[in-house]
Automatic annotation (TrEMBL):
<keyword id="KW-0547">Nucleotide-binding</keyword>
<dbReference type="GO" id="GO:0005524">
    <property type="term" value="F:ATP binding"/>
</dbReference>
<keyword id="KW-0808">Transferase</keyword>
<dbReference type="GO" id="GO:0016758">
    <property type="term" value="F:hexosyltransferase activity"/>
</dbReference>
<keyword id="KW-0378">Hydrolase</keyword>
<dbReference type="InterPro" id="IPR010610">
    <property type="entry name" value="EryCIII-like_C"/>
</dbReference>
<dbReference type="Pfam" id="PF06722">
    <property type="entry name" value="EryCIII-like_C"/>
</dbReference>
<dbReference type="GO" id="GO:0005975">
    <property type="term" value="P:carbohydrate metabolic process"/>
</dbReference>
<dbReference type="InterPro" id="IPR004276">
    <property type="entry name" value="GlycoTrans_28_N"/>
</dbReference>
<dbReference type="InterPro" id="IPR027417">
    <property type="entry name" value="P-loop_NTPase"/>
</dbReference>
<feature type="binding site">
    <location>
        <begin position="602"/>
        <end position="609"/>
    </location>
    <ligand>
        <name>ATP</name>
    </ligand>
</feature>
<protein>
    <submittedName>
        <fullName>DNA helicase IV</fullName>
    </submittedName>
</protein>
<dbReference type="GO" id="GO:0016787">
    <property type="term" value="F:hydrolase activity"/>
</dbReference>
<dbReference type="InterPro" id="IPR002213">
    <property type="entry name" value="UDP_glucos_trans"/>
</dbReference>
<dbReference type="GO" id="GO:0008194">
    <property type="term" value="F:UDP-glycosyltransferase activity"/>
</dbReference>
<dbReference type="InterPro" id="IPR014016">
    <property type="entry name" value="UvrD-like_ATP-bd"/>
</dbReference>
<keyword id="KW-0067">ATP-binding</keyword>
Length: 1149
């Protein structure tokens, strides 16, 4: 940040610039000052450590012009002298502040360089106000008979044009700038600054001019007074100071007149030499001549100050509380003389040339005791922070200007990216249209090529459309100045040079991982915020600071402005992606290795759900060759939750991820009710790992053996009728044959059928005295299998079963449930289910376990090779895959496999998306499985999920402190050690981004009571609103809830109530929808249980009856913890019973 301060004038012009320079430097700016090359100025600036750039001739060599032509020549000469120096000094600066006689050259120099320009006056009357007549200066003289201020101002503007228009126009032309219509308005600008104290020089606001009054630019002077001056001051009563600063053209006898006037008042005299070189007329001891001294200190020790009315001297005297006598000499000095008289802090002499009598009279008035009292009172009102305020505002302006320039540059680049995106869309659309123009017939290979290309281009178009919103959201820069833009997808130019890096690429990792403590080669990071295709704001993260200076180490937030803006935005009922604001600890989870099981333990608000979804997108991007053909499965707690998250992955360009819940993982079973439709104790029994053995025992119980011999009759239709006896031993041998296959039940039945039919055929052959050879016996065995009574026999010995039939039999038969001797009587009773009752979510793992035991029913589509495809079809498809034109499609990363090719060759169905094929196939083996709210899953659910992912590549996300299901987890090892011992690893998300710190404090008692050993995640923001509680009578609850709903200021609210609480009266309130259907989240107010609210977030939460929530079941504390942590802004509790002791930090209403 670099600033140039420029002035050409006397010390009254330079001293304020020095004060501003010091304050700007303290604010972090690099400052230089252009000023006349006076020795006095050089010493003052050097003493403060401020660089001086000499500008033009020394000020004391300037000759006051006489006449209009002389003034015009002087301005032209000044512009010529100043231009080169100003332009060179301003090069690379962000801002130019000017005053004095650089006003004709400085604004054009700033405009040519494209930097902000600020003109500053030190007196209100210098500025062209329509409420005050102009000074006699550059625009005058004016007709004495004219009194209309507006007419005079018009004459002033015309005078500026007439005298200085040519010089200013020539200067601007040399800079390549257009002429200006009004020189006066050009040099003063439409927003000049006024560095005058509001008490001494107030500005009267006017619509024509937007003046910024900062206060006087004052710098405390710490210099000591000379010893001889101190000795003089101590030798008698306080003297009267007489000095005229930088004024050079004074009346010849002014010093003698002033000394005599002071002596006439019986006072000693301090005579300031000044630029006029004033000297004492005699050597009497009551007069002391001083040079340049610390006036701030001196004026506190004098009886009065006689001066010319310069802004600097006036301010110093007023601040010291010294009475003043002003002898105005020129320009704005008569105005300040008037102000001294108006304020009652001194006297204004009539005219610039005094007599002993006139000055003595003015001194007498100023030395009156009431004037000193008044001067002291005014001194207390004067501000001394004008330079500091001006510096702060200038720094803000520089930042705003820089931001505006940067925004223009970022918009230009992002616009280029969108142009490239549009081009890619157009190309993909053209290719897809070309595919559609092809004939639908042709060879199998041509059909396959066409359909594959159609799938590829359609997917590419979807990816490009998904990138529309927030295409580019940031960039990083290294020490060499190389910039890398990060966005939703990768884009390159025609030469394949990268324009945009996909956020999932390894090269984008530093954007998320860099911190001030560990920048990793990143020197700058910028987060872009967009609206539509326009970049509307950005936030920069600072790097390269010392650890002590940095705003944070490993825990520093990345893109804090963008992050907090997203966190405090109103909820919409749908989760959005966080690709632009992923934090470092979240990024480490997202980019963790694919292999093995990753457990992400994260408390409320840590973003574990959205991190898991971004991990899915990252894994598909990074390992598409491994995952594209098998897919990724994301499991959520319920269908409402799935609706809440269903827009995240499409927004990231991934549409081939299967979203589901435990209740959706068993294809073909419809009408499954959610977890809330099952009593907790029933769900606990169904989820118990013992159910696997109970099912096995029940299945064994359905396989019959003859207690006494059975008889079947065969050959009824062939004339060879024969009765056959079936012994228990035969049944046992048949069972043993089936078991030896180690096949699922339905597939093992074939071995049983073969054993029974073979033994019976041999028996018949023996009965026929050996008339049959072996081939005839085999044919007979085959024919026996077709006999109706044989089939009935096989069904009794080893029935063909569906999973639904087996589970229905188990639930309907206490005897079957007792077969394994694992369940108690109460548990067996809990399993009882009325025939035809709907399946529940807890039934699905049981059904899946049963299906695994049974295998597919013989003759069903599932028993045909690879989706009913013949071996010949599969072999031909393999040949096509190997002969594909590699330039047409990348087989390694294509979604096409041999099975898809074969089905396409058959031509019976279209190229279905992987997500549809996987969801319809119970035995589908996914490449990766992500489980959210995993702490809720039962052991049976874990068995089912591990079957879906035989490679054990999984991401497990949850919070043990939020476990609400009776069959849920108390530790992660409880679920994983059985299946992935030694292959699972855990990480913990420690930062709560969502929940305000005020709300998290209310959970501390609950978390202590849970005693999980887990620390609450650290809240990074304050919401500014303290959570409240209110006890109400039961009959008041509905009315109070209605009032809270009416007070909502937009956003979304959840009313969270305990299970079993009657809420029909609340559900009837306007705008309230009870949870159950996923569309409930579209309502502004949702009525739900803690279990239904899990994983969701709302602007406001109204928690009802926490005591009843605690008592609802054994996981009541967990439910309460969940309910307390759903809000992003406000939390209120309504209770009819006493507030539980574990709740802390609530403000009672």
């Amino acid at each position: 940040m670099r600033v140039l301060l420029a002035t050409y004038g006397s010390r009254g012009d330079v001293e304020p610039m020095l004060a501003l320079a010091v304050r700007l430097r303290e604010a972090g700016a690099q400052v230089r000052v252009c000023a006349p090359p006076e020795q006095e100025f050089a010493e003052r600036l050097a003493g403060a450590g401020v660089e001086l750039v000499p500008l033009g001739r020394p000020w004391h060599e300037m000759v006051r012009p006489s006449g209009k032509d002389a003034a015009a020549r002087m301005v032209a000469d000044l512009i010529e002298e100043q231009h080169g120096t100003l332009a060179a000094a301003a090069e690379g600066c962000d801002l130019l502040v000017a005053t004095g006689m650089v006003l004709f050259s400085a604004p054009s120099v700033a405009e040519a360089l494209g930097i902000r320009y600020v003109f500053t006056a030190f007196c209100p009357v210098v500025l062209p106000s329509p409420d005050r007549a102009p000074l006699p200066g550059p625009g005058g003289p004016y007709p004495p008979e004219e009194t209309d201020v507006r007419v005079l101002r018009e004459l002033e503007a015309q005078g500026y044009n007439d005298r200085f228009g040519a010089a200013v126009g020539a200067h601007r032309a040399a800079l390549g700038l257009p002429p200006v219509a009004s020189v006066r308005d050009h040099v003063f600008t439409d927003q000049p600054w006024l560095a005058a104290d509001p008490v001494l020089g107030p500005w009267q606001p006017t619509p024509e001019l937007d003046v910024v009054q900062t206060g006087a630019w004052h710098l405390p002077d710490e210099r000591p007074l000379p010893a001889d001056l101190v000795e003089f001051l101590a030798a008698g009563e306080p003297p009267v100071y007489v000095g005229f600063g930088s004024m050079r053209h004074l009346a010849p006898d002014l010093a003698q007149v002033a000394v005599e006037a002071v002596r006439a008042q019986g006072r000693r005299v301090l005579l300031g030499r000044g630029w006029a070189g004033l000297a004492a007329a005699d050597d009497r001891g009551d007069c002391f001549v001083v040079g340049e001294v610390n006036q701030q200190e001196l004026f506190r020790r004098v009886a009065a100050v006689v001066h010319h009315g310069g802004a600097g001297t006036l301010f110093a005297a007023a601040l010291a509380g010294a009475p003043q006598v002003v002898l105005p000499q020129a320009a704005d000095q008569p105005y300040y003389a008037e102000r001294v008289a108006e304020l009652g802090i001194g006297a204004a002499h009539d005219g610039p040339v005094p007599t002993v009598e006139s000055l003595s009279a003015a001194l007498a008035a100023a030395l009156a005791p009431e004037v000193r009292t008044r001067a002291a009172a005014v001194a207390a009102r004067i501000r001394t922070d004008g330079a500091e305020r001006a510096a702060r505002r200038l720094v803000e302006l520089i930042a705003a200007d820089r931001k505006e320039r940067e925004l223009r540059a970022e918009n230009a680049y992002v616009g280029l990216l969108y142009d490239r995106l549009d081009l890619q869309r157009e190309l993909a659309g053209d290719r897809l249209r070309e595919v559609h123009r092809q004939e639908r017939g042709g060879t199998a290979q041509s059909r396959m090529e066409r359909d594959t290309m159609e799938s590829t281009h359609t997917r590419r178009i979807a990816e490009l459309h998904a990138a529309e919103y927030g295409l580019c959201f940031g960039r990083i820069e290294d020490a060499d100045g190389e910039r890398q833009y990060i966005g939703r997808i990768a884009l390159a130019d025609d030469d394949h040079e990268p324009l945009l890096t996909d956020w999932r690429a390894r090269a984008a990792e530093p954007f998320y991982r860099a911190t001030p403590a560990r920048p990793g080669g990143v020197v700058a990071r910028r987060h872009l915020r967009s609206k539509g295709r326009a970049v509307v704001d950005f936030d920069d993260d600072a790097f390269g600071l010392d650890d002590q200076e940095s705003s944070g180490g490993e825990g520093a937030l990345s893109g804090e402005g963008a992050l907090l803006a997203s966190l405090t935005a109103r909820r919409t009922g749908r989760m959005g992606d966080i690709v632009a604001t992923i934090q470092a600890e979240q990024d480490r989870v997202i980019r963790s290795d694919l292999a093995g099981v990753l457990v992400v333990q994260g408390g409320p608000g840590t973003g574990k759900t959205v991190v898991a979804l971004h991990r899915a997108a990252y894994l598909l991007y990074t390992h598409r060759d491994r995952l594209a053909k098998r897919g990724v499965l994301v499991i959520g707690p319920n269908t409402t939750f799935l609706r809440y998250i269903d827009q995240v992955l499409p927004a990231l360009g991934e549409t081939e991820v299967v979203l589901g819940s435990i209740g959706t993982l068993y294809p073909g079973v419809t009408g499954v009710t959610g977890a809330d439709g099952e009593r907790a104790e029933v769900a606990a029994v169904k989820g118990d790992a013992r159910m696997a053995q109970v099912l096995l025992a029940a299945l064994d119980g359905l396989r019959q053996l003859p207690e006494e011999e059975w008889t079947i009759t065969v050959g009824r239709s062939s004339g060879h009728r024969q009765e056959l006896r079936i012994s228990r031993a035969l049944g046992e041998r048949a069972h043993a044959a089936a078991h030896r296959t180690h096949e699922p039940h339905n597939q093992a039945r074939a071995a049983l059928v073969e054993r029974v039919s073979s033994e019976l055929a041999l028996r018949i052959a023996r009965d026929r005295d050996g008339e049959m050879d072996l081939d005839a016996v085999a044919d007979l065995a085959d024919s026996l299998v077709e006999e109706p009574e044989f089939q009935q026999l096989a069904e009794r010995l080893w029935p063909v079963l569906t999973a639904e039939q087996l589970v229905t039999a188990l639930y309907g038969s206490p005897e079957l449930a007792a077969a394994a001797d694992l369940l108690g009587a109460e548990e067996r009773e809990l399993l009882r289910r009325e025939p035809g009752a709907p399946w529940t979510e807890a039934d699905v793992p049981v059904l899946d376990e049963a299906a695994e035991l049974l295998g597919p029913v013989p003759g069903s589509a599932a028993t045909l090779p690879r989706d009913g495809l013949s071996a010949a079809e599969l072999e031909y498809a393999k040949h096509l895959m190997e002969s594909f034109d590699a330039s047409m499609v990348d087989i390694e990363t294509s979604l096409v496999d041999v099975e898809v090719l074969a089905r396409q060759y058959r031509g019976t169905e279209s190229l279905r998306p992987l997500s549809e094929r996987a969801a319809a196939d119970r035995t589908w083996a996914y490449g990766h499985v992500i489980v959210d709210e995993a702490q809720e899953l039962s052991p049976m659910a874990w068995r089912m999920l591990t079957r879906r992912c035989p490679g054990r590549s999984m991401t497990i996300v949850g919070d043990l402190a939020q476990t609400g299901a009776p069959a849920g987890l108390n530790s992660w090892g409880q679920a994983l050690d059985e299946y992935t011992a030694g292959r699972w690893r855990s990480v913990e998300l420690s930062v709560n981004y969502r929940t305000p710190s005020e709300i998290m404090r209310t959970t501390e008692g609950v978390l202590r009571a849970l005693d999980t050993g887990l620390a609450a995640p650290r809240a990074v923001r304050s919401g500014g609103v303290r959570p409240w509680s209110r006890q109400v009578a039961p009959d008041e609850l509905r009315a109070v809830v209605e009032k809270e709903i009416a007070a909502m200021d937009g956003g979304r609210m959840a009313i969270v109530h305990p299970e079993g609480l009657p809420v029909d009266a609340l559900a009837s309130l306007a705008g309230v929808v009870a949870a159950g259907e996923p569309s409930a989240l579209d309502s502004p107010v949702v009525l739900m249980t803690p279990g239904q609210s899990k994983g969701l977030e709302f602007d406001s939460v109204l928690l009802l009856e926490p005591a009843r929530m605690l008592a609802a079941h054994t996981r009541g504390l967990n439910d309460l913890y969940v309910a307390l942590t759903r809000a992003t802004k406000t939390l209120g509790v309504l209770h009819t019973e006493e507030l539980p002791a574990v709740l802390e930090g609530f403000e009672e209403r």
